[in-house]
Amino acid sequence: MTNREMTELFSVMLLTWPNAEVFRGGVEKLGPTIKLWASCTADIDFWTGQQAVYRLCKCCKFPPTIADFREQAERISAEIRSLTTEAQYTLCCENPEETAPPGSFAGVVMEAMGGANALLVTRGQTTMWNLEGITAACQTVIRQRPSLIGGKPVIDAGKKKR
User: Which of 4, 20, 84, 133 sits CB 3.0–4.6 Å from 138 for a disulfide?
Assistant: First the structure.
């Protein structure tokens, strides 16, 4: 995470915990704190950081520590890995249209890829599962719909959007 990105996240945290001592003086005076947080979270991408802050805002009465933030970010990353693995397992089969019905996470991923034909790639004379494409599509779908992580349902296939 960069200083600029962490400053943006600190602005959200400042609004969530306005009376916290750690935020006294506002974002302008928190330069050293923001720099420390940014250096301790350099391995976390901004989107994951945003999701971690949103989760912390929902569940913490007190401002989070760097360790709290990192823990949430790791949970989010683990959930994304789990969804991606599940989608790969579901889509890499003989009849992915049957195992990944419309509305299921794997079905949404397959649709984002352009359909079942995109699940296979040919390299040279070898045809194989497009695991890189499935992974990339999972990332895209999850980032467009962050509610997919955190144990929430993907889409209720039985209900139509109104």
Answer: 84
pLDDT tens-digit readout, 123-144 = 999 999 999 999 999 999 999 9
Distance CA 160, CA 151 (A): 21
Residue with tokens 């695991």, as numbered in its chain? 131
How many CB atoms neighbour CB 53 within 10 A? 21
In terms of Cβ atoms closer than 10 Å to its own Cβ (0-12, 13-18, 19+), residue 16 is middle
Distances (CA, A) of 56 to 67, 123, 136: 12, 44, 27
Secondary element (H or E) of residue 146: none
Phi, psi of 91 (to 5 degrees): -85, -25
